[in-house]
Structure formats: C-alpha cells, structure tokens
Amino acid sequence: MDKNRTEGMKHEIKGAVKEAAGKMTGNHAKQAAGNIEKNAGKVQKAVGKAADDARKHDRHH
Length: 61
Fold this sequence. Notes:
Elements: H1 3-25, H2 28-60
C-alpha cells in the first residue's frame, strides 16, 4: 500500500478530531485548522490510491 494512503488517513482522522474539538469548545481557529488537515488528508489518501491503482495496472500489462 502506498505510504500516502496511510499518512493521508492519519491526517484525515487527526483533522476530524481537531475539528470536533474546535466545535465543542467554540474554538473556530482549531475547527478550521482541523477541517483543513482533514481535507488535506483526504487528498493525500486519494494520491496514494491512484499510485496503488497505477502500480496494479502496470503489473497486469
């Protein structure tokens, strides 16, 4: 599995936790930072998935 997939998942989870904590405490800066990190993690995870898919495709051809 591509490293970007695992790292992206970590950032997505960490960002979601920060975002939830920011919502609960009314800390809008923490909420926004969490949202940004969560979305960056989703992008990184997608990059890793694409790399995995490309490698899989190359092995079959």
